[in-house]
């Protein structure tokens, strides 16, 4: 059995990847690790917003993103854990997978080529 890391963001695409993962069933998956990666603020913004406010904002965003994912995994009957990381998404995903010793990372591709301006505005870890 394997441990699978599934990065979850504010898009329906990440939930589609999760649904595809849980279709493998509880017999194939030991545990699913759900990860929400939250952004860091640059130092100019951080200077004016307290650490507590920034942490609360990240926690609220992560909880909102992870809630539908938790419902999907609970319905499938597969054990799971939730995690929140901060920083650049690719590095945070790789570090979390390494630290948790995950066997797989289930992450979809963004899809068709879009103009850079549209990709930059999407809140998806898949666009980075």
Radius of gyration: 15 Å
* N→C terminal distance: 30 Å
Outline = elongated
Mean pLDDT: 86
Strand content: 15-25%
The beta-strand count equals: 4
Strand order of the largest sheet: 3-2-1-4
Low-confidence stretches: none
Mind summarizing the main beta sheet?
4 strands, parallel
Order of helices and strands: EHEHHEHEH
Helical run tally: 5
The percent range for helix content is 40-55%
- Which structural class do you get from the secondary structure elements? alpha/beta
In short:
It contains 5 helices and 4 strands. By secondary structure, it is an alpha/beta fold.
Write a structural description.
The chain has 128 residues and is an alpha/beta fold. The protein has helices at residues 12-22, 43-46, 51-76, 89-100, 116-121; strands spanning 2-7, 29-38, 80-86, 104-105. A 4-stranded parallel sheet has the order 3-2-1-4. β1, α1 and β2 (29-38) form a beta-alpha-beta unit. α1 (12-22) runs parallel beside α3 (51-76). It is elongated and about 50 Å long. 24% of the residues are buried. The mean pLDDT is 86.
Secondary-structure map with pairings?
Blueprint (H helix, E strand, L loop, with lengths): L1 E6 L4 H11 L6 E10 L4 H4 L4 H26 L3 E7 L2 H12 L3 E2 L10 H6 L7
Helix pairs in contact: 1-3
What labels would you give this structure?
alpha/beta; 46% helix
């Amino acid at each position: 059995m394997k441990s699978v890391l599934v990065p979850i963001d504010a898009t329906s695409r990440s939930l589609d990847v999760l649904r595809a993962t849980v279709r493998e069933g509880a017999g194939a998956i030991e545990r699913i690790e759900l990860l929400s990666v939250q952004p860091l603020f640059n130092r100019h913004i951080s200077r004016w917003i307290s650490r507590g406010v920034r942490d609360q904002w990240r926690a609220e965003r992560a909880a909102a993103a992870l809630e539908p994912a938790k419902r999907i995994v609970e319905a499938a009957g597969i054990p799971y854990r939730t995690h929140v990381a901060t920083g650049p998404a690719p590095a945070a995903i790789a570090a979390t997978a390494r630290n948790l010793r995950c066997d797989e990372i289930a992450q979809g591709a963004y899809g068709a080529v879009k103009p850079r301006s549209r990709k930059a505005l999407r809140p998806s870890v898949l666009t980075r």
